[in-house]
Amino acid sequence: MALRVIEIVTPRSDKDEVRKSLEEHQPDAGYVFWATPLDDGEFLSFRVVLDVAETGNVLDELEELFAWTSKYRIVVYPAEATLPRLDKLAKEEEKAHAVFPEENKGGSGSISREELYDDVLDTSLLSKNYVMLVLFASLVGIIGLLRDNVAIIIGAMVLAPLLGPNVGLALATTLGDARLTREAFKTLAVGVGLCFALSVGAGLLLGVPEANHELAIRSVTAYSDIVLAMVSGAAGIITVTLGVPTSLVGVMVALSLLPPLIACGLFLGAGFLAQAGGAGLLFAVNIICLNLAGVGTFLAQGIRPLSWWDKERAKKATLRAALAWTALLAVLVGLMILRTR
User: Which residue ranges traverse the bilayer (predicted)?
Assistant: First the structure.
């Protein structure tokens, strides 16, 4: 099982209060902890080793306990193993035989809200590295599509620079975080605009080859593409919340955002407007379905703000966003029906 270490740096004067709180929640969360004095003698370091599924609940309890000032600090980092092992099987067996089972507080096996936010924020902020990654992935995708080479196109899919800001947008919608929404949307807009401009330029200069299978299949949107985008988006969000980056590669390939966008630009640059519209429709369907599936999966994973007023604000923001994405998807389905007729 995945483990986390929560390190709490607190003034020595608060030792008894912190220890009492940790001891109260220890039977439910099944963690181990100890305290170590720091060099200056004024502060203590409490280290808590626990299952990743309990991290969010424990952090919520600590956040409610502390009046946050500069004298407190909590750091979360992964642990490879602990000996003796945390007896998770015994804990699950005890819960299964309980006469009055406790209500599930959201221990869904996901990483904590704070870890998730930091991970998503890293890929949602506009940076020089992000712009370079978009440039390189776009060039790889353009070459792959023009050469009708699946292996090269998969290389562009795996780079997947547009996936990060979309996940950030879905998380921001779930938490009602306006700042993260702005940053993720700005990053996504820059990435889409840069990739599209490069693709249009390549289409103007090089045109598009005839009988190109990879380009042709991305100029048509089927109803199965909607299902695929929804399922892949949900799988991607689960992978992110579990903190298992290696599993994300398959999602990047299944949920292809760059290839249809590049195909749209290539067709438009070469003057094939109908095919450009079809590829643009596929790209829009993938973006909308990813965000819809992302919000739904985050909610199902129990990712919500801590305070009640943030929860109320997030609930309203999530509802508005879900209605907007659903309306856009309905419009795109209508366009698909018109195109088939």
Answer: 130-146, 152-175, 187-206, 226-244, 251-274, 280-300, 321-338
